[in-house]
Amino acid sequence: MTLYNKNFMQNGNVETQWDNIKKCMLDTMSDLVGRVYRKVRKPWIMQEMMNHMDEQRQWKNVNNEERRKKYRRLRNELKRATDKSKKEYIDRSWIFKEQDVMTSCT
């Protein structure tokens, strides 16, 4: 047996080793680069909505009835919040556009 094979047999399975390597790499990258947040593409989406989306994704593919109900509840809450935020954003943008038109006409 080679030295690598001996170490492999002593340290456990491939999944455990991969998890250790992956954790080490992610920790090192976060120390060097810092945490990179997802970029929000829509101006009406807030960070708390993004956090809510992450929580919703955790419950998406669960086959338990109670957890499925939780996913639906989270989905509905998120849908209402994003719709409300989008409507407010559009209303604000129209107000600013109307003000610009009024000031350019005078």
Question: Topology of this protein?
Answer:
Elements: H1 3-11, H2 14-32, H3 47-59, H4 65-105
Helix pairs in contact: 3-4
Brief account:
This protein has 106 residues and is an all-alpha fold. It folds into 2 domains: 1-36; 39-106. It contains 4 helices and no strands.
Question: Would you give an account of this structure?
Answer:
The chain is an all-alpha fold and 106 residues long. Helix content is 77%, strand content 0%. The protein has 4 helices and no strands. The N and C termini lie far apart (88 Å). The mean pLDDT is 80.
State the main characteristics.
flat, mainly alpha, 106 residues
Shape: flat
The sequence of SSEs as H and E is: HHHH
Helix content: over 70%
Q: On the 0-100 scale, what is the average pLDDT?
A: 80
Largest sheet: none
Question: How many beta-strand runs?
Answer: 0
For this structure, the quaternary state is single chain
Total helical segments? 4
Task: Decide which structural class fits the backbone.
Answer: mainly alpha
Q: Please state roughly what percent of the residues sit in beta strands, choosing from under 5%, 5-15%, 15-25%, 25-35%, 35-45% or over 45%.
A: under 5%
| Structural domain tally | 2
Rg over C-alpha atoms, rounded to the nearest angstrom? 24 Å
What is the terminal separation in angstroms? 88 Å
Low-confidence stretches: none
